[in-house]
Structure formats: structure tokens, C-alpha cells
# Entry
Amino acid sequence: MKISRRESMKYAALAASGAMVGSPFAPPVLQAAATTSDKGGPRRFVFFLFSNGLHPNHVRPKELLETAKTDKVIDVDMAAHKLPEWSAPIEAYRDRMTIIHGVNGEHCNTNHGSPFGCLAGVKKGKSPSAPTIDHAVSQLQPKTPLPMLGIGLSQLGTMQTSPISYSSSAAGEAKPLPLFSDPRMAYQNIFGCVAGGKSEAGFLAETAWYDQMLADSDRLRRRLAGEEAAKFDVYINGLKQAKQQRLDLVRIKDKLAKAKPDYNDRFENPQESGDWWQAGIDVGVAALQAGVTNVLTIDAGLSGPDGMPLDTLGLQGAVQQNGEGGKPRAINSHYLGHMNQMDESVWVTTRHYSFKMLDRVIKPLASTPEPGGQGSMLDNTLVVYTSDSGEVQHSTGIHWPFVLIGNLGGRFRTGRYIQYPTWGTSLNPGSGQWGKGRFQKRPDNGRTINALWATMLHAMGKPVDHFNLDGGRAGIDKLGPMEELLT
Amino acid sequence: MIDMRTIVCLLIVVSCTATASADFQQSVRPLLEKHCIACHGPKKQEGDRRFDRLTGNLSAHPEEGDVWAVILEQLETDAMPPEKQPRPGASEVATATTWIKENVGQAYRLIARKMMRPENGNHVPHDRLFDPKTAEQAPKIAASPARIWRVLPQSYEDQQKWWLRAKGAAKVRGDSVLPAPFGLHPEHELKNYSFLYTLEASQTEGLANNARSLLIRMIDGDPKNDRSLIRKLALAKEPPGDEELDKVIVDLYRHWIGRDPEDDELASKRSFVAKQIKTFGNREGLIYGLVPVMAHPEVFFRREYGAPQASGEPSILPPQELADALNRALQDRGNSNHFARYVANGRLDSRDDVVAALADYEKHRKLSRAETVHRFLEEYFVYPHSLHVFKCPDDVKQQQKENGLLFRGFDATKTFGRDKAVGETHKVIDKILEEDRRVLTQLLTVRTDYMGKSDAVLEYEFQYNKRKAEGNIDRMEKELARTGEKKLPDDKRAKVTQELEKQRKRLAELIAQRKSPDPIGPDRMGVLTQRSWLVTHSTNTENHAIHRGKWVRERLLGGRIPDVPITVDAALPEDPTKTLRQRMQKTRNSECWKCHRLMDPLGLPFEQWDHFGSYRETELDRPVVASGEIIDSGDPKLDGPVSGPQELVQRLANSERVHQVFVRYAFRFWMGRNETLDDSRTIQNAYKAYKENDGSMSSLLRSLLTSDAFLYRTGAVPKEELSDEN
# Structure
């Protein structure tokens, strides 16, 4: 282990932020640090995860294919290169984007998706084992009504029966953060107070829940004394805070009214999954525009292989004639991930769809002036696009690509193509078999997904040595941010 | 534990700053100047601490609270000044600590809270705890403090499942439940201490949204479902009447809270739901109206108030609270609420009633095999954590190569076979608990084969597989023997014949393998030599002898290791040519050895296995050295060098002290708090019950669950003392 005790203790304050938040005695470490990052306007983050893998060649100019095998960091200007056909929908942002290749996340066990693993840089699990980066950056933001907002997208039936999902984000070990899958519920929770009619009444009814719970709590509290009473007061204050959050939303009613998305038929009578994908994303973007939050996470696919919007992709009931085993195979969400992302045209359609959804986030931010500042909202935003499943569905996570769009108020370099030396070698970089690499020891300058997330914290004015590379993960990467990404 | 009166007194004293300040100059300042300020003053600030500017006046300088807590702890544990420096006299220390406790309430509270944490359970001196005189002096009834105890995340999740099932809601994604947005203490300690947990804003919000989500799921569930009154009312055209609403609310209270609502509660909830129905109609109105019932604080916090009297005497838990406490003490999941029936029959009012109720329970299931006993042993040994220690896949492949049989069939990208290793430990433990004799001795010394299976487990598996193969053979022979119309067609006949041959071969192999021991490695001995425990206490590339030693020191010897001083760089030197033992020579420096002598020699014997828990005889082409030593255990018979892990473990297993420490941990687990000297009688009785019944876990648990600490509470505000202002 290369971390000194002093360094690790410094870090522990951050990494363990979620760990004991439930304790009445834990200091609010990250909140205290927020003051250091309050200068220079908002720093918004959007994390967009699209399940079933992001094939590296989907975001690699063809002429840079040979750079896939490298033992040093390749840092190329994107201006001279055109994005491949899969990335056509985001070609327009080429000069505002940085594409990163060769990030290692093998320890997240990305195969089939990595719930609570991807955004934390830890092994995936049904329950989170560490705080995720969206939560960590949300704790460094100036106060907003919601620290962060999560939207979870899947197939229509799943979203209807599970309006709340838990898949990508967490405040710490065993503290998953909810994502809104039902856009009506998301809209109601955030814009209900300016929606008029029943929605507005619904917002007030939700606020009244907390009065009910406070009254019930009072019955319990009255019988307690001393330390136990103090402990229960933390809960009561939490209820008051949750209620206050709603009152804070009422306080910014004007902004909400101005930014609220068009509550159309798509919300109430969705015909296909895509209707709710669009509705959910619109609520998320409007929340950013209204200043409800500065951190938005969109988990498209709920960090698993079964959440692809087949109906919208035109794949409902589709069959791959020469499928696995040489037989005709029905294409379901999981099987779509099995298909060769390089050869199959459905993967052009699928990737395009995901980028169009991404553009649905970027475009409104690019066209909205920064409130009280200069330029557009996108100028103060960093959009991170990747797949929680690593490079393909059956992945090892050693060729994990990322697309960053925006520069977070000039803090990130843009227009760059950066390839890190990979931990493993692919048998055939040109094929769809990216997941079949061979694990090796860390190459010089090779970096993990944890370093990428640590870089985000650096950009937020929180210069940590690493993010979640503690305990059993200690020492699998060098300390410090990915310098190549920062200005 | 500090009660309210103490805090009030302390606060009053703290506010008398002038007096306090004067006392400070006389009581504490001289000691600080004589023994501390040379290293923590203007010239040097060891550990970033500086004491020369302390005023002792927390009203004016609240930031001093933390520093005083550190000073108090160091003085009370005799950790400072450093060993070679002159030490203050006992009376000097007593004067100073008394002053701090009396005047710096915040420091006292901080340290009192610190001592309540699970990692500080061994703070109470072992010998005094087991001294019969201490038990004699303990209070007549050694009760636990009145409290609320947050439910376990798995209990909350399971409760959803039972509710949805009971009411016939559609199965969604294989009965998926909404995860609890709260968890347990993440450290490798006993996890479910009542004082550790509360809920915060984002969690309460998540729970309210979960409740809404569950109601939607219930209403929009299976259209054929007619078991849910909520669904029926939601879909009805007419608004529900008061009687129907009451039924829904009472039903929810019973399921989620475990009691009926009181009259005023019912009236308030009914009125709230009716109001929402009037505004939103049946469906939405029921959802909006019922969320506060399903997110009621008592769904997440269980009451343990007792029936407090104005006299302040401890009181036994009322039947409802007692039934709930017993349920939680024995099961984490499920919704059987086994002890509720005794409440209804009025048979849960006294200790004798609890004894009888437990006896009833044991007619169906041994206490030693209760769900919670497994969780206790998981938290005690920490072995399931092995699943979370990252291992380099290259190393895994090497392991697979060297131990082909061991790793066969496991996916290198997943858990490297460790889930199997954890499973084996589960099985071994289950067998020991089933037998329920000499439990800790067995846990420490049971012989298992190289894979980690005990003889009992091997025999069980053999019999199971044999029965299965014989059953298959029998069935297939009968199929082949059919004649007439029932005769198998030829193609199927050929298939069955082929399969029959396979099964016969398999049976023969099973019988043959039973006789030939696994040749890969020697037997293991107890949980501490199982792969799961060894991997738990390893890093991603090597063994963690220090953590292993720390575990033995704390969990078996009842010792305490002071926190690592902040100035210490706790890293070992990296040198691929040296073994871990050689690199650990660094800890022999005098300033490190003071603490490391308590850990390292207890952990080094386990160097007999590599960081995957595989047996080895050489390391870096040199013979493995697996010797160690027990130092200052508190039991002179235990102390002395050991030649290897087996001798270490055997000696520990023979020690009475080790068994007593095990009982202390069991007390903490089931009471959800650290013991104090007041609990001395309860702990001594529990140990006696365990020892006299041949090391029976059931007896230990029976003693704990009928003890004062479990049954009695003190400190809640009596109902009659409540006023509107409260």
C-alpha cells in the first residue's frame, strides 16, 4: 500500500462520507467542505448510463484504431478526426467533448452491468458498498432544494410497476438513492407545486405526509429522554428537513413555473417506452434549468441487461435470423446485448437512440443562458456518458470508454481523444470481442474508473488522492487525478 | 450511560465558568505542564495537538471539546505519557479526570459515546466483569436503557414481500422488493447496536416514496386479486365508508407496526385519508392518504420503553414490546410474529412467561439454530466479508492452475470461488449449531478437509448425494422394467439406459471418493483456518497478519488495541524479495511494538496459508515460518510461544477466558449495546448457563433472553409525567 496513514485519513473523511451518516454523531464532512467549491458559479453534472455496454469503436475515429494498443497515454486533438457512424448524433459537439479510452474497471465486475459499481468504482452489488460519484459531487454543491436527482429508465412495463428504482447511485454503504422511473411521480415531486389542478393539490398532500409523520413521531419522542431523545431528534429533524425541501421548491415557484416541462400525453398515456424516456429526461433537464439541483443521474437500463426500450427501437418481436448457435433468435433486451455491437445494424440504431436521448439533455442546456452569468448552462456543466456494463455486455471492464461533454466552467479540457494504456490486451480490437481481454498488472500510466471520479472531485475543488480505492481496492491504481483531463 | 439529570447537572456546572476556570488552574494545568506540554506545546505539536492554549472554558471555546475528550481517554486508559516518560501519580490523574468529567460535559459525553461504540466493547475490564464481587454489587435489577431500535434493512424489505404476497399483489420482477434506503454499521464489528441508528431526511423521503410505490403496486396488481381491500376500494365507484377505512388502517397498523392503532390515532388517520379521497377520488386518495401509515415512524423504529413508574425503578417490557423484542431477537426475516399469540392470551407478562414461551418455541426449533445466531457468528467471525476483498484475476488464474480441483468450475471474473468458501463455512457452522455442544470449542477446532468441509458436512453431503443417486437408479430401473402398454419407446429406452449407467458410475465414484481423502492439502482446523476467514483478513495481494492478530486479541482474548496515532505512517515497506513476516519487522520498533506485540504474534501463525487461504509450505522459495506467541492475554496459562496455527487455536479453545469473551460478544449482539459492570451478574449467569450445559448456544441464548438486561428497561418518561409542553 502506498498511501500513508495521514493521506488515507484525509481521504477517509471523504470516502466514508456516506458510511456513518446514519449515526447521529457523524460530522457532516462533505457539507463542511462545500464552502471551498462555492466560488465561480454552479458546476453541474449529468451522468448518463446506457446499459449493455459501450463498444469502444462506437466512440473511436476509425483512423485511431491502431492506438487501441498502447503502452503510453495518447492525447490527440479531435479536430482532425471524424466520429464513426455510431456517434453521428453527437458529432456536432466534437469540439466540446473529450473521449476517454482504456479506463479500467475490472474490479466493478461490469459483466451484464454494474449496479452501484460503475459510479462508485467498486464491485457491483444488489446493495451499494460505497458512495457514488454523483452523490459525492452533489455534496460539494451550493445549497439547492434537492442535492441530486435520479431518473431510472427501463422498459415501459417495468417503469409502470416500479415507479421508484434503486440501481446506480448511493450515499454510502447500504444507502441506495432512489431514482424516479415514473416521470409522473418525478414531475409531481418537483413541479407539482406549480402544475395547477390536482397536481398542485397532490404536492400539498405529499407535504402534509410529513405533518402526519411528525405528529406520530411526537408520540414516540415524548417518552424518551437523554441520548435516546437526542437520537430520535435526528430523525425528527430529517422529517422537518424533507418537508422543508418541499417548501424550498415552493420558494422557487417562479423558476419552476418558467422551466417546467410540457406535461403532455407522453406522461399520462405512454404508448411505448420511449415516451417515458423522453418525459423522464425532460423532467431532469427542467430540474437543472430551474435550479432545483445541480446533479442529474440518468440510469437508462437500470444498470442491467433487461432495460432496453425494444418497442421504441422497433425491435419488439424482432428475430435475428442467423443468431447464436446458428439458429434464428428472438431479440429481447438481454439478447440485444449479446449481439455483436460492431457488426449488427441494430446497434447503430440503438446507439443512435441513446445519443439522441443524450442530446435531449445537452441541447436545452446549450440553448439556456446561464442564470445570472455568462454563456450557456452547458458551459458550466459536465455531461458524462458511458455504460455501466463497460465495453460490451459480457465485458471485463478493462477497455471502458467514456464520453465527456462540456467543460464545467473551463475546468476540463475539451476536443481531446485520450487513450490510456489498458490493463489487458484484446484478442482482436477490430472485432466485437472487447470483453475477452487478458488481465495484467497495472501498466505505467494505466488508470482506473476511480481515478476518473477522483478527477471530478478535483474539478470541484476537492483534491482527493483517490475515490473509493480503499480497503481491498487500495493500491490498484496510483494516487491523484487524471491530469490529462484537467485544464 | 448518561441520564438527563447528569447532562443537566453537567451543563449547569459548565456554565459556571469562573469557578471552573479557577479549578482548571489548580486541577489540570499542573499535570499538563509537567507531563504533556513538552510534546504538545509551543515547541512541538505531536499528533497535531497543542495543549498550552487550553482554557477549560467550553462556553467561550467550544472547539476545545474534542481535545478534552482525547486527553480524558488518554489519561483513563493510561496510554499517555509515553512509556519511558515519567508518569503522573494516581491521585494527580484522578483529580484531572474528575475535573474534566465535571466541567467539560461535552468531553465526557464524547468519550461516553465513544465507549458505546461496538469497537470499544472490551473497554470494561474482563476480570472485574467476571468477579463474583462485582455481580454482588450490581443493581438489584440490571436493566437496559429505554430506547427505540431501528429495524434491520432486511426485515423492512421482507415485510414488503409478505404484505404484497398476503394481499395477492402481482409479482413484479420475481417478487422484487424496494431496497431499504438505510443500512448497518459498515465496519467489521457487531453491527446492530441500537444507539448507532436513526434516519435522515433523504432516507425518510425514500421511505415515503417506497410506501407510495408499494400502494401503487398493490392497486395496479393482478386484476384477479380480490384479497386486497385497498385495491377493492380504490377501484370502487363509491367512496369508502368509515368502517371500511378503519379496516384498511387497522390492517396496515397490524402488518407494518405490529399493533392496533389507538383510538385517537385511528380517528386522525381516517380523517386524513377521507380528506384525500374527497380531493383526489378513491384511487389517488387512498394512495396519498395511506402513505403516512406505511411510512409511520414505528414501522422503522421499535419501542422498548418498558412501563416506567414515577419511582424510576426499572420495569419489565409490556407484553407487546416483549413479543416484538423476542421476535427480533430470534429472526431477521419472515413475518410469523411467533410471540404475538402469547400477548393475545395474556401469557407474556413475566420472566416465567418468557421462559415458557421460549420452551414452546424450542419444540419446533432449537434456539441455537435461530436465524439471528447465524448472523451473530457472521458478524463475530466477519467471514462473509471475504466476498468483498478484491483479488487480481491473474493471481486467481495461478491459484486455479495450482489448485485445479479446488477452483474447478468457478468463474475467474466473479468471486473466485469465494462464495463457495463462504458457503462451506456456513455449512460447518450450521452443523455445529445443530449439534449444539461445545459450540465455541467446535467453531475453533472442528476438523475440516482442505475444501473447508467438516466431517459432519462431508457425511451429510455423501448421504444426500448417495440417496439422490440411488433414488434416480431406482426410478430408472423401474422405468426400464415396465412392460405392456407402459413400456418405454425404444428411443427413450436407450436414453434412460445411458443415463442409468451414468448414475451407477456416479454412485460408485461417490463411494470410492469417500474413502480417499482429498490429497491437495492437510486438514483445516476451525473457522480461523477456513478460506473465508483467511481471505477476509487479507488485502488484494497478501495476507493481513496484523488484522488477523487484532481479531484474535479482541474477539477471543477480550483485549483492546488503541487507535493508531495519527502521526504513524502505518504502511509496511514494499520489498518483493522479503516475506510479509520479514517486512513486518518494521513494527518491532519500540514505538510500534507497544501495540503490535498484542497483534502480530497472534496473526503470524496464519502465514501457513496464502492470501487466498490456500495451504503452503514455502514462501518465496523458503519454508514458511508459522510460529507466534500469546503475550499479555490476561490469563497467564495462555501466554507463551506457539509453534504454529494449530497449537495457537487449540490453546485458545481450551481457555476459559476465551469462552467468557465469547459470551460477552453474545451479550452485546442480543442486547444491542456494550456491557457495563452493572451487567456483571447477567453475563456471569449467561456464562454459567453456557458452561454447565456443555457449551450450548441454546442455553446461552435462553439465559440472555430471560435476563434483566433483555426484559427490563429504565429511563423512559412515565405516561403520567407527560404534559402538553413535553
